[in-house]
Amino acid sequence: MRYLATLYSLLCLATLAFGSGRSIIRSRQATVSLDSIQSNGLQNIVTWDKYSFFINGKRLMLFGGEVHPYRLPVASLYLDVFQKIKSTGMNVVSFYVFWGILEPKRGEISFEGFRNLQPFFDAAKKAGIYLVARPGPYINAETTAGGFPGWGSYTAGLWRTSNQSYFDAYTGYIKTVGQKIADNQITKGGPVILVQSENEYSSWKSPYAEDKQYEQRLKQAFIDVGITVPITTNDAHPNGHYTSVDVWGYDSYPNNFDCSHPTTWSAAAVPENFWSAHLQYTPNIPNAVYEFQGGAFDGWGGSGYETCAILTGSDFERGMGLSIISGWSFSDMILSLLQERNCHVYDLFESLHGVYTSYDYGSAITEDRRLRDKYYELKLIGQFLAVSPAYLTMRPQNIGSSQGKFTGNQALKTTQLLDVVGNQTAFYVVRQTDASLNSAQKYTLTVSTSIGNVIIPSIGGSLTLNGKDSKIHLVDYLAGTTALVYSSAEISTWETIDGKDVILLYGGTGELHETAIKTSSTPTVVSGSGTIKTKSLSGGVLAIQYITSGQTVVQLGNTVLYLLDRANAYQFWSLQADTTSIIVKGGYLLRSAKVEGGTLALTGDLNSTTSFEIIAPSAASQKVTFNGVNLEISKTAYGTLTAKKSVTLPDVKIPDLTTLTWKKADSLPEISTNYSDAAWTTVNRTSSINPTAPTTPVVLYAGEYGYHTGNILWRAHFTATGSETAFKVKVSGGAAFAHSVWLDSTFLGSWEGDVLHANYEGTYSFPAGRLTQGSAHVITILQDHMGYEEDGQSASDKFKSPRGILSYSFEGSSGTKIDSWKVTGNLGGENYIDKTRGPLNEGGLYAERQGWHLPGFDDASWVAGKPTEGLASAGVAFFRTSFDLNVPVGVDYPISIAATNSTTNPYYRAQFYVNGYQFGKYINSIGPQKVFPVPQGILNYQGTNTLAISLWAAKATGARLDTLKLQLTAKIESAMQSIILQPAPAWSQRKGAY
Ligand SMILES: *[C@@H]1O[C@H](CO)[C@@H](O)[C@H](O)[C@H]1NC(C)=O
Ligand SMILES: *[C@@H]1O[C@H](CO)[C@@H](O)[C@H](O)[C@H]1NC(C)=O
C-alpha cells in the first residue's frame, strides 16, 4: 500500500473549522482593514483576506473533517455524524461526490436512493456544519476509477485534460450536480461555503503538463451552473498547481500509510517549507490545508484499521496535527482542514480499487460511528481553536530556524507564532526536532511577554515534552477579562459564565506546569487534591505552579482555573445554548444544550453511569435534564453543579446465525451441460480505444460491454482439434482478484488471488482424452472485478486499465479458434436494475442476476444448507436466511457481521447482502477484513432482516465459512435522531433475467 500512498498522495481531507453557531471572536475582535478583504466578485458572504476566511463579515477559522455520503447509505445517520463532528469544536465538513454512481449510464444521472445528496445538505445545516463540496469530476478517494464512471473506460480522449471528448463526457454531470450544490450554497441559505474543482491535479504523465485550459474550463463550468461561493483546489503537495482558483491550498499526510508499522514515524514528517510555499504561490490568501491526515486507508492483505488508528492516533494528532496547525510548517492555517476526516464510513461496494470493503480509515469516528480516543484528543484542539481568535491572525516568525530556539534544547524545535493583527498574543509550538523519537525532553522556555522577558517556569523546575507530543504554550492570551501572561499548560476551552472566567488548563499526567495571571487575588484550591506554588512576578502578575494530575480547581477573584490531566480534559464539552455558554464534564458524547425557563436541557450519549459536573449560569440551570430525564443536582462548594445519571443499556437478543434456518442454492448453473448463454452479451468488438491495446481477435474487456463491477463471467465456445492440452489465459481483475476456469462442467483450476497481482496468467490443463477432434466445448471463466485503477496521474488514462481477458491460447494446438465469446456481469450492465441500491450493488453471479440477494425472494424450494457448511467442490453457492431484531429506541448498538479465517480450506471469497444491500466482500486467504459493520437503517432494528451470502470456492475441495456471527460492537444510550429505514425494495421477477 505504500506505493499507493506515494503515488496518490492522499486523499482524504480533513477540513474543519469551527463554530458556525458560536461566536468565534469573543475575547477581542481583531481589527480588520476592510479594503484588504477579498471576494470572487460573485457574492459577499464568503470572503477572505491573507489570514482567514470570513463568513458574513466574521473572521473564522475553518477546521473540520471529511465525510463521504456514498459510503454511509443511511440518510438519517448523517445528522449523528455531523453532531459528533460539531461537538469537537469543528465547523466544516468536506465531502466527495462520486460521479460514477450518479451517471453509471452516460446521459442518465440519478440521485435515487442513498445517492440523494439533499438529506446530506439538510443534516449539515441542521447541525450547524458548513460544507465544502468536492464534486471532482475526478475525486480519487480510493474509489473505483477514482470516481469516473465505468463508461469512461471506453470513451476516447485523454481524461483530466482539456480534451474535447473528456469535456463532453463531464459536462452533463457538472451541470446537474453543480446545480444541486448551487441550490445549497450559503448564498441561498444552505450550508455550502466552498466548492473544490478537480482533486490533486498535481502530476502528469510525460510529455503532458499542467493543462491550464482544462483548469480554466472546469472552473468556468462551475460558475456557469451558478456556483458563486469561492472555488478551491487541493494540490497534492504545496507545488503551486491550479492557483487560478479563488483560494488555492494543498494536502499533507505526514505519517503516510504504513499501518503495519504504526509506531514508526519519519524524522521530518512535515517539512517547514509549507509556509514558504504558501508565501511563494499565494501570499494574499489564507494558508489552506484542504486535506490533513485524519487517518489512513488500508489495502487488501493489510494490517487492519485498528493499526491505522494507532499510526494516526492521539499522539499523532498532538505531535503532528497540533504542530502543523500551529505553525511548525505553516502557520496560519485557516481553512485548515486538519484531522478528522471520519471518512469512512461504510462502503456499499466492493468497488474500491486497492482497499478492501471498509473505509474506516482509523479516523476519530469509526466506520460504525463509535468515538475513538483520538476523537477526544481532537476535541481538545478543536475547542481550543474555537476560543482563540488570536490564532486566526498569527504569523510564524522563525520558520527554518526553530531548532533549539527559546528552549536552548537542540532536541526541540520551537516556532513562535505572533498575532500580527492584534499585536498581543503569541503561541510557542514546541515539538521534537526528530519527530520519530520517543524521548522525554526537559526544557525551559525563554520568551518575551508584556511584563518583559521571562523564563518559564519561573518558580523553578522544568517543563517536559514527553515523546511523540507537541505543545502550544501561550503568551499574553486573554480569556474573558482574565489576562494570562503565559501558560505552559494548554487551554482546552474557556468561557465566561456568571461573570467568572472559567479556564480549562491541561497537560500530560504528572507534568509540571505554570500559568501566570494578572491578578490581585490570592488563589485557593477549592476542589481536588492538587497543590499549587505561587510567586509574584512584576506588574501585578502571579505565577502559579502545579502538577497536572486528576482534576484540581483553583479560584482567584473572578477566575476559575481547572487544572487537568489529559484524561480529565477529554471529558469536558463546550456547549452553546443560543447565546449562553455552558461547560459540562462527563458523558461519552454531548450533543446539545438548550435553556428554557431556567431549565438546562442537555442531550448526549452515555456508555456507563456518569457523574456530570455542570458549569452554567445559575439562572439557566435551576433545573437540569439529560435526554429529557430530570437530573438530581447538587452544588459544589465553588458553585458548579454535579449530578449522577445512570445509564440504561437494555439487553438485546442477537440472533445466533449458525442456528438459524438457512437455504442454499447453486449459483453457477453456467457449468451445467444444458446451460444456454443465448441471452448473454455477445462479445463482438474488434477494436478499442483502450490504451492497453487488445491482443485478442475480439475485445475481451468487460467494460466495453457495460460491465464495470462485481463478478464477471465469460463463456468461450470452441471446436477441438484434439491436440489441445491446456488453456492458458491472462485475466485482469485488479489487486486481490481471483478467477476460476471450467471446461464444460469440469473444474480446471483457479487463481486464488494475492495482493500483488492485478492480472494473472494461468495455465489450466484439460483432462486427458476429453477433447476429441471435432468435439464442441465451452470454457467458462468466473472472475471478479475489484474496481478500476485510479487515475492519480493526470493524462495517464490509467483508470481505463481493462478488467477482463487480456490474452489466451491453447497449449498443444495453436490453430484452435474460439467460435464465439459471451460475457455477463450485473443484469443490464449500465442499464442496471436496482435504481435504489445503485449501480455497484450487484455483480454478475447467477444469484445476483436473478435478485436472490433481495428480501422477499421465495427460497422455499431451495435445499437446507448453511454457509458454515459451505459447498464441497469448486463453484459458487448462495445462501439465504432471515432473522428478527428487536433493539429498543434510545440506544445506539452498532452491529457487524463477523467471520473468521480458515486455514484448513483457505481459498474462498464471500459477499454479504443485508436486505439486498451488499455490505462487504470477505477474502479468506487475503484479508484482513473480518468484521463488516452494517448500519442501522440498512438493518431493521425492529423487524425482520434478510441476510444473503455468496460463497465462491476456488478449490476442488470446496469451502465453508468457519464461523459467522452478528456482533454488537458497542452499547450506547443515545440521543441520536430516530433512524428511518432506507428503502429496500423486495424481489420481483426480473424481466429477461438469465
Ligand atoms: C502591530 O505591530 C506591527 C509591527 O510592530 C505594526 O506594524 C502594526 O502597526 C501593529 N498593529 C497594530 C494594530 O497595533
Ligand atoms: C465509554 O467510552 C469511553 C470513551 O470512548 C471509553 O474510554 C470507556 O472505556 C467506555 N466505557 C465503557 C464501559 O465502554
For the structure shown, list the relevant keywords:
single chain; beta-galactosidase, domain 2; mainly beta; binds 2-acetamido-2-deoxy-beta-D-glucopyranose; globular; 56 strands; TIM Barrel; disordered N terminus; 12 helices; Jelly Rolls; 4 domains
Q: Mind telling me the CATH superfamily name of the largest domain?
A: Glycosidases
Q: What is the first-to-last residue Cα distance? A: 38 Å
**What portion of residues belong to β-strands?**
25-35%
Uncertain residue ranges: 1-31, 326-353
The CATH architecture classification of the largest domain is Alpha-Beta Barrel
Q: Over the alpha carbons, how many angstroms does the gyration radius reach? A: 30 Å
Count the E strands: 56
Ligands in the model, by name, code or SMILES, are: 2-acetamido-2-deoxy-beta-D-glucopyranose
Shape: globular
Structure description:
This protein has about 1000 residues and is mainly beta. The chain has four domains: about 35-370, TIM Barrel, CATH 3.20.20.80; about 395-590, beta-galactosidase, domain 2 (3-layer Sandwich); about 655-665 and about 835-975, Sandwich (Jelly Rolls); about 685-825, Galactose-binding domain-like (Jelly Rolls). Helix content is about 10%, strand content about 30%. The strands form 13 sheets. An eight-stranded antiparallel beta sheet has the order 11-12-13-18-19-22-25-24. The chain has a seven-stranded parallel beta sheet with strand order 4-5-6-7-8-9-10, with helices on one face. Strand 24 and strand 25 (about 540-550) form a beta hairpin. Helix 2 runs parallel beside helix 4, helix 5 (about 165-185) packs parallel to helix 6 and helix 9 runs parallel beside helix 10 (about 375-385). The longest helix is centred in the first third of the chain and has 20 residues, at about 165-185. The radius of gyration is 30 Å and the shape is globular. It starts with a helix and ends in a 21-residue tail after the last strand. The model is unreliable at about 1-30 and about 325-355 (pLDDT under 50). It binds 2-acetamido-2-deoxy-beta-D-glucopyranose (2 copies). One 2-acetamido-2-deoxy-beta-D-glucopyranose (NAG) binds near residues 371, 588, 607 and 608. One 2-acetamido-2-deoxy-beta-D-glucopyranose binds near residues 371, 588, 607 and 608.
